[in-house]
C-alpha cells in the first residue's frame, strides 16, 4: 500500500512563520492544474506494482482551487493508478475557503477527510501569524464541516510568544468542543527568511521560549489523552480509527509519490524532490519532463531515517528489525548510544522495541539525532 501527495503551491497571503513553497499569484493556476495532471500521468510506471490507499492535497492552500480542479486531479489518479475502493482522500483547507456550499461540494466529490488550518482560536494569535481567517470563521467552518464530514483534522500551534498555559488550554478545549477526531499540533518555530524571524531580529516580538513550548506540549498531551485521543506521533493525536493514513505511511516507511513543485517522493531505496519553483516546474512539464532530483539512500541513511521516524511514533524502533535489516554493528551502536537516555528515563525498551517515555517525547528529535550514525559504508 502506498500514497500520492499533491502539492498545491498557492496561498492567498504568506503566514509569517511559513517557509513552505508557494506563490500568492494565481495567474498560472489553470496551467498548474494541467501540469499536475500531466505529472500524475508521467509518473504512473514508477507505481505500476503499487496499490494507492491515500491521496493527500497539501500546500500551500489546496482549498484555493475550485472543487472541479481537485476532482480533475483525483480522477487523474484513479485513471492512471491502481487505487483501493475507498482511499483516504484529504484536502488541506483554510477556514475562510470553507463555506457550507463548498463543504457540501467537497463531500460529494470523493473527498472524505478535511485537514483544517485553524492554528488558534484567538484573534491576536491569528494576526501575529498573518492568517487569512478570523476566529468567527474558524468556529463557523467547524460547525458546518462536522455536519458533512466525519473525518476531520485541525492544526493548532503552541509556544506562541507570551501565550499563558491558561490561554493554550482554552485553545485545546475549544477544539474539543467540536468533537474533532484528529488534532495535529506543532510548536511555533522560527525559520530563516520568514517575517517571524525578521520581527524577532528587530525586537518587535520577544524570542520564542523553549520552556514555554515544552510546558504547552505536556499540557496538550495530558488533556488530549484524557479525552480519548491516542498520541500516535510526536505532533499528531487521533481517536481510535482516525489516525491519518497518509501521514502514518511516511512514518512507517511506505512508498509515496510527491506531485507538484517542491514535492518529495520515496520508493524504499531512493528519495526524490521536485524543483521548488513554479515557473521551472511548468516549463519542464510542458516538455513532458518531471523536474526531479533523486538520491539513493545508503544503509546508514535508511537506519537514521528509521530511528528518526520510529522514535516520533507509538510504534517505536524495533530492535529485531535493526538486527535483521541493518546488522549487529548497527544494533550494538544503538544500544551504546541509547544507554544514557534510558538511564535518564527518556527512552525505554518494551517488547524489544525502543520507545520514548512521556518525559522524552518532546525531545524525541534531538534524542534521535544523537542516535544517528554518520556513516559505516
Provide a descriptive summary of the structure in words.
With 377 residues, this protein is an alpha/beta fold. The protein is 41% helix and 22% strand. The chain has helices at 29-42, 67-80, 100-107, 123-129, 135-148, 165-176, 195-201, 210-225, 245-251, 278-286, 299-312, 319-326, 328-343, 364-371; strands spanning 2-8, 51-59, 82-93, 113-119, 152-158, 182-187, 230-233, 236-238, 256-259, 264-266, 270-274, 292-296, 317-318, 347-350, 353-356. The longest helix has 16 residues, at 210-225.
Uncertain segments are none
Mean pLDDT: 92
Radius of gyration based on Cα positions: 21 Å
Alpha carbon gap, first and last residue: 30 Å
The rough form would be described as globular
Structural class: alpha/beta
Helical coverage, percent range: 40-55%
Give the percentage of residues in beta strands: 15-25%
Give the ordered list of helices and strands. EHEHEHEHHEHEHHEEHEEEHEHEHHEEH
What characterizes the major β-sheet? 9 strands, mixed
Amino acid at each position: 500500500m502506498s500514497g500520492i501527495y499533491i502539492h498545491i503551491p498557492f496561498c492567498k497571503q504568506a503566514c509569517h512563520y511559513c517557509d513552505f513553497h508557494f506563490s500568492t499569484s494565481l495567474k498560472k493556476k489553470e496551467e498548474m492544474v494541467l501540469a499536475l495532471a500531466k505529472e500524475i500521468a508521467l509518473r504512473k510506471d514508477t507505481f505500476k506494482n503499487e496499490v494507492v490507499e491515500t491521496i493527500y492535497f497539501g500546500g500551500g492552500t489546496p482549498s484555493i482551487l475550485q472543487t472541479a480542479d481537485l476532482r480533475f486531479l483525483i480522477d487523474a489518479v484513479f485513471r492512471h493508478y491502481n487505487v483501493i475502493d475507498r482511499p483516504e482522500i484529504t484536502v488541506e483547507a483554510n477556514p475562510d475557503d470553507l463555506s457550507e456550499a463548498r463543504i457540501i461540494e467537497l463531500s460529494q466529490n470523493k473527498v472524505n477527510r478535511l485537514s483544517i488550518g485553524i492554528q488558534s482560536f484567538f484573534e491576536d494569535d491569528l494576526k501575529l501569524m498573518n492568517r487569512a481567517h478570523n476566529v468567527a470563521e474558524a468556529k463557523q467552518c467547524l460547525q458546518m464541516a462536522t455536519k458533512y464530514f466525519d473525518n476531520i483534522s485541525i492544526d493548532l500551534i503552541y509556544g506562541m510568544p507570551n501565550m499563558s498555559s491558561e490561554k493554550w488550554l482554552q485553545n485545546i478545549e475549544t477544539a474539543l468542543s467540536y468533537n474533532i477526531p484528529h488534532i495535529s499540533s506543532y510548536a511555533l518555530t522560527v525559520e530563516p527568511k520568514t517575517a517571524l524571524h525578521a520581527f524577532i531580529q528587530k525586537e518587535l516580538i520577544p524570542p520564542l521560549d523553549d520552556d514555554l513550548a515544552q510546558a504547552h506540549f505536556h499540557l496538550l498531551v495530558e488533556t488530549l489523552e484524557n479525552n480519548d485521543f491516542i498520541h500516535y506521533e510526536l505532533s499528531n493525536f487521533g481517536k481510535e480509527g482516525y489516525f491519518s493514513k497518509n501521514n502514518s505511511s511516511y512514518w512507517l516507511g511506505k512508498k509515496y509519490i510527491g506531485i507538484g513543485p517542491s514535492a518529495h517522493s520515496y520508493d524504499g531505496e531512493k528519495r526524490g524532490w521536485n524543483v521548488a519553483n513554479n515557473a521551472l516546474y511548468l516549463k519542464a512539464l510542458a516538455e513532458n519532463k518531471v523536474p526531479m532530483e533523486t538520491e539513493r539512500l545508503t544503509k546508514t541513511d535508511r537506519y537514521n531515517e528509521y530511528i528518526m521516524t520510529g522514535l516520533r511514533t507509538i510504534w517505536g524502533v524495533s530492535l529485531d528489525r535493526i538486527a535483521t535489516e541493518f546488522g549487529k554493528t548497527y544494533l550494538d551502536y544503538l544500544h551504546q548510544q541509547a544507554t544514557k537516555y534510558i538511564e535518564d528515563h527518556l527512552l525505554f525498551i518494551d517488547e524489544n522495541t525502543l520507545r520514548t517515555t512521556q518525559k522524552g517525547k518532546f525531545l524525541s528529535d534531538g534524542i534521535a539525532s544523537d542516535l544517528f550514525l554518520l556513516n559505516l559504508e
